From TrEMBL:
Pfam families: p450 (PF00067). It comes from the Bacteria. InterPro entries: Cyt_P450, Cyt_P450_CS, Cyt_P450_E_grp-I, Cyt_P450_sf, Cytochrome_P450_monoxygenase. The keyword Transmembrane helix does not apply. The lineage of its organism: Bacteria, Pseudomonadati, Pseudomonadota, Alphaproteobacteria, Caulobacterales. Its cofactor is heme. It comes from Caulobacter segnis. Belongs to the cytochrome P450 family. Keywords: Heme, Iron, Metal-binding, Monooxygenase, Oxidoreductase. This is Cytochrome P450.
C-alpha cells in the first residue's frame, strides 16, 4: 500500500469526547475541574472541534475559548494579555521565578539575557551532546527485544539536557532528578480545584505541601550541580553561557536567577522532549511503512555525521513526522491569557480579569482548520517551507512568548530518534491503544513495552 494512503488512514487514539458541553452551572464547573484534574484534555466536548470562538463562565468568571488563528495571535501578541498566573501554580515549585513564569519588565530582561544561549549557532554547538545521548540510548537498549520506551526516552532526554546544560551525564546526576520529575508529573503536576479558584500563583499554597517538598528537593539538586560546576573548569556548555550572561547594566545574573533558569530548562526541556519522542515512536510503530521511509533517510545520512543544524536538512520526512506528532500530541495542550483591561477579541468583549483559553490540542484537531485533522499524515508538512507559516499550528506558542527552546528541542529529538531508528525497528507488543493524559505535559495513560527488532546494517 502507498505510504501516503496508509498514513492518511491512521487515526491515533484520543481521550473520550464528552457528548455535551460542560459548564455554566456549579455542577458543570465541578465536573470540568474534576475532569481537567484527571486529564487536562478530557473536558472538551464534540462542539468545541467545530467552534472557533466559545464564550463561557467558569467558577463565576467570564472567559473565552479561542481557536481562530487570527484571534489566537491577537491575544498572544497583545500587551493587554498576560499569562494567566494561576495556571503557573503547578509549575512554580519546579521552575521558580524563571522566564517560563515571569511577566512584564522582568520577563523582557530575562528573555534578552537568555537569547544568546539559544541562537542557532549556540544550539549547533550542542549537537555532540545530542549524539552522545542518542548513542547512550542505543547502548542501553542493545540486546533487548522489548523495552519501555517512555522510561527510556525520559532518561535519554534528561541525559541530553544535562550534557548540554552542565556537561554532566544522566547516570551521574539524573537518577535523583528523574525520580523527582516522575513523581511530580504523576502527582502534584495535575491541576486541582484550588488551582482553578485561586487568584494567583502564590495564592492558597497551604494545600501545596507535596509540590513544595518535591520542588524543594528538585531546586536543591540543581543548586548542588551548579555549585560544583562553579569551581570546575569551563566546559563551553549552556551553564557557562548563563554565568557569562549580563543584564542591561552589565551585571551578571543573580545566583537564584541562574538556578531558576537552569531548573526551568531541565524541567521543561527534558519532559517535553521525552514526550515528543514517545508519541513519535508510537505513531511510527502504528505506521511501519512511514517508519521504514524515515529509516531510509537516517541510514543514508547517519546521526554521527551531523556536525550542525544545517545537516538536519538531510531528514525532511523525520522532521515532518515530528511536526505531525506535535500537531496531534502538543506537549503543552492548553494555556491561558488574562486580560489586564477591558477589550475584545474578534468582536467578543473581554472584561478585565477574564481569561482567554487557548488549546493547541483543540486547534490542531479542529475540523475547520485542518484537512483530516485526526489522522496521522506527516506528508502535510513536507510541502511547508516553514511550518510556522501554518497559522493553526502553535506547538511552541506564538507571539513574543514563543518557546525560546524550540530549536533546541527539535534538534535534540531529531538526532535521538534518528540514532534509534537506524539501529532498531520499533513495533507494538499488544493492541491496547495508548491515549493521551495531560497534566503539565501530554503523556500516555500507560507506558507500554515496544518490540525492538535489530536492523542489520549492510556492509559497504
Amino acid at each position: 500500500m502507498d505510504a501516503t494512503v496508509l498514513s492518511a488512514s491512521l487515526i491515533p487514539p484520543a481521550p473520550k469526547i464528552h457528548p455535551l458541553p460542560l459548564g455554566g452551572s456549579l455542577l458543570g464547573d465541578l465536573r470540568i475541574a474534576w475532569e481537567m484534574g484527571r486529564n487536562l484534555v478530557g473536558a472538551w466536548c464534540e462542539d468545541d472541534f467545530d467552534s472557533l470562538v466559545t464564550p463561557y463562565r467558569f467558577m463565576g468568571q467570564p472567559g473565552l475559548v479561542v481557536s481562530d488563528p487570527a484571534g489566537v495571535r491577537q491575544v498572544l501578541a497583545s500587551p493587554n494579555f498576560r499569562r494567566a498566573a494561576k495556571l503557573g501554580r503547578p509549575l512554580k515549585p519546579l521552575v521558580g521565578d524563571s522566564l517560563l513564569l515571569t511577566e512584564g519588565e522582568t520577563w523582557k530582561r530575562q528573555r534578552k539575557s537568555l537569547a544568546p544561549v539559544f541562537t542557532p549557532a549556540a544550539i549547533g554547538g550542542l549537537v555532540p551532546h545530542f549524539i552522545a545521548a542518542g548513542d547512550t540510548l542505543v547502548g542501553r537498549l542493545a540486546g533487548q527485544t522489548r523495552a519501555n520506551l517512555s522510561e527510556a526516552f525520559h532518561h535519554t532526554a534528561l541525559d541530553a539536557v544535562l550534557r548540554a546544560l552542565f556537561s554532566r551525564r544522566a547516570d551521574q546526576d539524573g537518577a535523583v532528578l528523574a525520580q523527582i520529575a516522575r513523581r511530580y508529573v504523576e502527582g502534584p503536576a495535575h491541576f486541582r480545584l484550588l488551582d482553578f479558584v485561586s487568584r494567583g500563583v502564590d495564592d492558597l499554597t497551604f494545600a501545596d505541601g507535596d509540590r513544595r517538598r518535591l520542588g524543594g528537593r528538585w531546586l536543591a539538586a540543581v543548586d548542588a550541580i551548579i555549585d560544583e560546576r562553579r569551581i570546575a573548569p569551563r566546559s563551553g556548555d549552556m551553564l557557562d553561557r548563563l554565568l557569562a550572561a549580563r543584564d542591561e547594566d552589565g551585571r551578571p545574573l543573580p545566583d537564584q536567577e541562574v538556578r531558576d533558569q537552569c531548573s526551568s530548562m531541565l524541567a521543561a526541556g527534558f519532559d517535553t522532549t521525552s514526550r515528543l519522542l514517545f508519541w513519535a515512536t508510537y505513531l511510527l510503530a502504528l505506521d511501519p511503512t512511514t517508519q521504514d521511509r524515515v529509516r531510509a533517510e537516517v541510514t543514508a545520512f547517519p546521526a554521527e555525521r551531523v556536525t550542525g543544524l544545517d545537516d538536519l536538512k538531510a531528514w525532511p520526512l523525520l522532521r515532518a513526522v515530528l511536526f505531525e506528532t506535535l500537531r496531534l500530541y502538543p506537549a503543552a495542550p492548553t494555556f491561558g491569557r488574562q486580560a489586564l483591561a477591558d477589550g475584545e477579541v474578534l468582536g467578543h468583549p473581554i472584561p478585565a480579569g477574564a481569561t482567554v483559553t487557548i488549546s493547541p490540542w483543540l486547534m490542531h484537531r479542529h475540523r475547520k482548520l485542518w484537512d483530516a485533522p485526526t489522522t496521522f499524515r506527516p506528508e502535510r508538512f513536507l510541502d511547508q517551507p516553514h511550518p510556522w507559516g501554518l497559522e493553526a499550528f502553535i506547538p511552541f506558542g506564538a507571539g513574543p512568548r514563543v518557546c525560546i527552546g524550540a530549536g533546541f528541542a527539535l534538534a535534540e529529538a531529531q538526532i535521538i530518534l534518528a540514532s534509534l531508528l537506524a539501529r532498531v525497528a520499533v513495533t507494538l507488543t499488544h493492541e491496547r491503544p495508548v491515549t493521551p493524559k495531560a497534566s503539565i505535559t501530554l503523556g500516555p495513560d500507560h507506558e507500554p513495552d515496544f518490540g525492538l527488532e535489530p536492523i542489520v546494517q549492510a556492509r559497504p
